[in-house]
Amino acid sequence: MGIPTWLWKASTHHPLAPVEARNYRCCCTCCTSKCGFIFMMVLWAIYTVFMLGFLTIAFLAIPPKEFPKIITFPQFWAAICAIVGTFFGIRAIQTQKPAWMQLFLVSWTTMTLIHFGLFTYICIYETKAEGRIFIDRKGTISEGYPWSMMIVFGLFLAIYHIFMTLPFVSYYHYIRDRQLELEQQQGRMQSVQAYK
Predict the structure, then answer these.
(1) How many C-beta atoms surround the C-beta of residue 196 within 10 A?
(2) Are 30 and 19 in contact (CB under 8 A)?
(3) Which of 29, 30, 57, 187 is found 20 to 30 A from 23 (Cα to Cα)?
(4) Is 47 within 8 Å of 184 (Cβ atoms)?
């Protein structure tokens, strides 16, 4: 049976020109959307392999009572989203069906929300003095995390997610327009056959 072509169909957008991969660009127009998406999927697959390795080592090396202190529930779900998203991304490349890309975007959005949720949690709760000691440049001993470190990490996280999202959305637009063009061509062929 397989997966349907669409999870939700883009009904308002119809491509006017012939849909060609070279017309859909990403990464400051230096490569096609397909090339950029494949490159990002390779990076995401590497991330997923490291995530799986970390989780495997954590399951084997950490006593069960200590595990929740090392791996939190949101981190576990981020790992699940990374694994599932890798599968969806590979299937989107193989089949070029919009449904796979839509599933991929849902998993990416979920993982992004988890990352920003964890960051917000760290900013609100973990920056309080909880016995963490650091020494600033002046030699002052303080507790908690410095806010400058949080701002830099937050900016890095935002830039990372924007950088990753742009090729994903661009490739989705290519697959969506390609499928709409195929459906328009099939509709024309059916109307010509019905006319004969």
Answers:
(1) 4
(2) no
(3) 187
(4) no
Pair 190, 183: CB distance under 8 Å: no
Q: Is the dihedral of CA 34, 155, 149, 112 positive or negative?
A: negative
Enter the DSSP assignment of 21.
G
- Domain ranges in the chain? 30-195
pLDDT at 188: 64
- Give 10-residue mean pLDDT values along the chain (196 residues): 76 71 80 91 89 82 73 76 91 93 93 84 63 52 61 84 89 90 75 57
Q: How far apart are CA 15 and CA 183, in angstroms?
A: 11
- Which long-range contacts link 66-69 to residues 24+ away (Cβ below 8 Å)? none
**DSSP for residue 137:** T
pLDDT for position 142: 53
Cα angle 12, 89, 154; round to 5: 90
Q: What is the pTM of this model?
A: 0.77
Residues pairing with 25 in the sheet: 32
* Cα–Cα distance for residue pair 106/127, rounded to 1 Å: 31
Kind of pairing, strands 25-26 and 31-32?
Answer: antiparallel
The vertex-100 CA angle with 54 and 74, nearest 5°, equals 35
Q: What are phi and psi of 66, to 5 degrees?
A: -90, -15
- Residue 33 to residue 176: CA distance in whole angstroms: 12
